[in-house]
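Hi F.,

I've been meaning to write this up properly since the lab meeting, where we talked about keeping a consistent format for the predictions we share between groups. The idea is simple: the sequence comes first, exactly as it goes in, then the structure tokens exactly as they come out, then a line or two of notes. No screenshots and no reformatting. I'm using this chain as the first example so we have something concrete to point to.
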Amino acid sequence: MAAVHPLNTETAPGGPHPPPWHWRVLHCLTRLSLAQQLILLAVLPATVATLAAIAVLTRQHLDNVTELMRANAQTVALQVATVAQGPLMHMDRRALLRIAQSGTYQPHVQQVQIWSDDGEIVANSETTDRARTQGLQVVVPVPADDGRRAGQVMVEISLDAVERARRSVGINVSLVLAAALFGVGLSGWWAARRISAPIGALGEAVDRLGAGEEASVAVEGTAEVRRLQSGFNQAAGALAESRRLMESRIADATAELARKNQQLEVASQAKTRLLAAASHDLRQPLHALTLFSDGLANGETDPVRLQRIGHIRQCVESLDRLFSELLNLSQLDAGVLQPQWSDFPLDRLFDEISRNFRAVAEAQNLRLVVRKTDVWVRCDYVMLSRILNNLVSNSLRHTHEGGVLVGARLRGNGVRIEVLDTGVGIAPQHQARVFEEFFQIDAHSRPGERGARGMGLGLATVQRLAGLLNTCVELSSRPGRGTSVRVLVRRIAPVLAPPAIAAPGLVEEAEPCLHGVRVLVIDDERSILEGLQVALSSWGAEVMAAQSRAEALALADTWTHPPDVVVSDLLLQGGDNGLDVLAALERHPRGIGDGTARLLVTGETKPDRLREVAASGVAVLYKPVSPRVLRQAMHAQLARVRQPL
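Output, unedited:
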């Protein structure tokens, strides 16, 4: 329960009430500085004591003055009574009036009256030379000869002297009080400075110490303050020494971390170079093997040989998948992949996934369920397709019973695409690492399954592609129960007349015809040249082969007209570059022009090479290239250069 400050307004049934006055006073006092509180502590008691003493003395003085005036009036009244005794006995009113008038001539007397024994005023005299003010009346009896009272005399005396005394005392009291307060305040200020100044300096030193600066204070003042200052200097010195030691350790740790990072960077670059070199060197013979296996299959009718060729193709496809993972990662490292945003129905992508993997699932006695959806999304079709293909392929690889489910759920303005399987699952300690590069979990493969184990790059590629799409991948799994992977993409309203989306594999097309097409093939590997010649010739193309720039330019000297397509490797002998060879053929007098399609085929995966290829604008295929993909790419490039402007 939250604590309520005593100054807060309390709520009562009748409405809010202000805090008590003493809480308000305490609140004001807490907002004063130490010096102000000390001065107030010195001045307040002195003021109260001085005022009390002055009040008592002033009261006594005014009482004395009043009594003096009363005694004066008593004296005047007695004098008048003594003189008026005879005339009052004879009721001589004129004599009594003169006696009363003589009484008013006395200082401060305002009125004199002489009363008969029965209370009749027989004589009355008032002052006329000064204004009447508040007065004090004194009544004395007039004795007769026989001891009885003959009458009374009333004398009213002015209290102007008392008022003047009161004013004089007020002025003197103010002067004395001001002098006293000034003296007490000055003494209190001096004492407060003696205490607060060292404490203020100590506070400033604490602020400097908190800011990371070295700080110390002079030891001065009272014994208690000096003790506090000495303790602070010792603590500040120890803290400064600890800070210097910590900074030294941090500097050493930073230097060690920089050295480790440098070693990691060197190791990463060496890994990249090793993978790139190994990938390139291995892709070359694999590419040739792909071409030769296709050539062997053309026209072959022997079932035994066709089965062996099928086994070769399975091995080639397995190797192709491994190299594709390396290529995908290299393209992401090079930064050549950028999202191409478009709007499309998600069900179209789901249909493609169903076609691509249904046969694979059935071959493994698994169910692949892809639920229909009418949702449209805004995303990069190719990147999202690669993400889902990797996820489904990974799920099928690690599922032995049951199957894989692909579906979509609406989540606000987005769509959550889920890939669920009933596979072996992932242990909790491994779930945070499955998206790391080259991380693999030793899972039990299906008996007799070959070539299913990858390189641990599939989910790493998924994570990197999701980052390019400004989304994230969520994973949850239970060992032995299965795994669920979710990707969130943006949802849009359905488009009534959607534009045609060029996505690979959406429409089954007949194999393009290459009869009569003149093709120049440039590759420094003799086996690849021979494989390309076999494959292209079987498709009806006219093939010219060259292993270097010199051979390509020599062919240009002899041909009657340029080839329709130039298919070149990127890296050639002697450090030559396929892009440079294409540029040299363009400069040749009888070389290639706008009517010649250009196609690069390379096994290079270095990031700088990939960026160079992406910047050239030339279509590129990455080895190993299946004959079908090569044939379709050549046909697409021919169609592009032949279409009317």
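Notes:
The longest strand covers residues 482-492.
Residues 352 and 505 are 7 Å apart (CA to CA).

If this format works for you, I'll send the rest the same way.

G.
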